[in-house]
């Protein structure tokens, strides 16, 4: 399935994932492609921050969904 991540500059990155992949795996793919630090990566879908330990399926993500990247500043 395809998940799209939109960064803070409104650029879109497409990733092919499996429903059983974790959010952490998705973050790693995104950070490697964009050159961001994994520890600063925060992904949200709707109004919810996505949990690293949950799978794509557990996070209720569907094919073609757009997830938003922001920097986790630790506040």
Automatic annotation (TrEMBL):
Spans traversing the lipid bilayer: none
Domain (Ubiquitin-like) ranges: 1-68
InterPro entries with a match to the protein in the record: Ubiquitin-like_dom (IPR000626)
Highest taxon of the lineage: Eukaryota
Annotated Pfam families: ubiquitin
Name assigned to this protein: Ubiquitin-like domain-containing protein
Species assigned in the record: Paramecium sonneborni
């Amino acid at each position: 399935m395809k998940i799209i991540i939109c960064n803070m500059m409104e650029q879109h990155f497409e990733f092919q994932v499996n429903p059983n992949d974790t959010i952490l795996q998705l973050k790693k793919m995104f950070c490697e492609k964009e050159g961001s630090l994994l520890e600063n990566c925060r992904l949200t879908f709707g109004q919810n921050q996505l949990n690293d330990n949950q799978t794509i399926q557990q996070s209720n993500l569907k094919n073609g969904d757009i997830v938003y990247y922001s920097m986790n500043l630790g506040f």
